[in-house]
């Protein structure tokens, strides 16, 4: 096996770890989000798992857009607002 081939192994491992971390972070964020219902959550989960980088980035963009569009609630959680 040529030495040039062996030089790519650490970069490939680092890239794999980055993709796994991004995917796991997006799935954890999806799990903790109240805005996604059962069917929507399952669809997002499938998108994130089938397209690890694109799906995870799309979910994080949608999540950021949702949190920016929600009105700020003073004095605690949205459940206490009335």
UniProtKB/TrEMBL annotation:
Question: Domain Cardiolipin synthase N-terminal spans what residues?
Answer: 22-62
Subcellular localization: Cell membrane
Looking up Pfam families in the UniProt record yields: PLDc_N
Transmembrane regions: 6-30, 42-62
The UniProt keyword set, sorted, is: Cell membrane, Membrane, Transmembrane, Transmembrane helix
Q: What is its main location?
A: membrane
Q: How does it sit in the membrane?
A: Multi-pass membrane protein
InterPro entries named among the record's database cross-references: CLS_N
Annotated protein name in UniProt: PLDc N-terminal domain-containing protein
